[in-house]
Amino acid sequence: MIKFEEIFKQSFLDGYEAVGTREILVALGISCLFAAYIFTFYRMVTKKTFYSKTFNISLAGITVITAAVILTIQSSIVVSLGMVGALSIVRFRTAVKEPLDLMFMFWAISSGIICGAGVAQIGVVLALILTIIILLLDKLPQARVPMLLIVNSNASGIESKVMETVKKYSADPKVKSRNMTPDSLDLVFELRTNSGEQLVKSVMELDGVTYASLISHNGELTY
C-alpha cells in the first residue's frame, strides 16, 4: 500500500531535473559577460569623487555568485532548501548611500538570477534598456549647483557691506551661518555665480575682511 507521504514526495520531485555541466558552464560564462559589462558601465557613469573599485568588483562578483546560487537551487531540492535556510540568517549591515549604487546592485543581482534561470535574452534586453535610460537621463540639464562663500572679518558691521558686494555677482544669496566672537565674525553664504574669481577679489578688498573662500560642493541640489 502506497502511503500519502510517498505520493506527495514523488509528485514533489517530478519535473525537478538536474542541471548538466554544459548548462552550468554556459550560464556562468554568460553571467561573467554581464558582470564585465556592469563593471565597465559603472566605472564609466559614476561621478563620485572617491570611486570605489572594491564596490565595483563586488558588483561583478554578485552577478556570478547569484547565477551560481540559482543553478544550485535548480540542481538539488535538498541543497536549495538548505541554502534558503542559510541565507535567511545572513544580515548585511553596510549601508548603500548612493541611490545609483543601489540600482547597480539590484541590476547585478537580477542579471545573476536571469542567467541562472537560463533566460539570458531577458538580461540582454534589460542591459540595453538600462544603458539607454541612464545615458539619456544623465544628459538632461540640471540647475546650477549652489556654492558656499566663507568670509572672516575682524570689523564690526561688515555683514551689510559683504552682502552688497555679493549681490553684485549673485542674484539671490542667502546667509546660511553666522559665527561671532568678541574679535571676529564668520559668515557663510549660499549663492550661485558665474564670476567666482571676481567675487572673492571684491570681498577681499573690503576693509576688515581677513579671509574669503568660495567652495563648490556636490550635495543635494535645491531649485
List keywords for this structure.
elongated; alpha+beta; 13% strand; 223 residues; 57% helix; Alpha-Beta Plaits; 2 domains; 4 strands
Write the H/E string, N to C: HHHHHHEHEEHE
Which runs of at least 5 residues are low in confidence (pLDDT < 50)?
none
Q: Give the count of helical stretches.
A: 8
Shape: elongated
Radius of gyration: 29 Å
What class would the helix/strand composition place it in? alpha+beta
Assembly state of the chains shown: single chain
- β-strand percent reads 5-15%
Q: Report the major sheet.
A: 4 strands, antiparallel
Residues in helices, as a percent range: 55-70%
Q: State the distance separating the first and last CA atoms.
A: 76 Å
Number of strands: 4
| Strand line-up of the largest beta sheet | 2-3-1-4
Task: Compute the number of structural domains.
Answer: 2
Mean pLDDT: 79
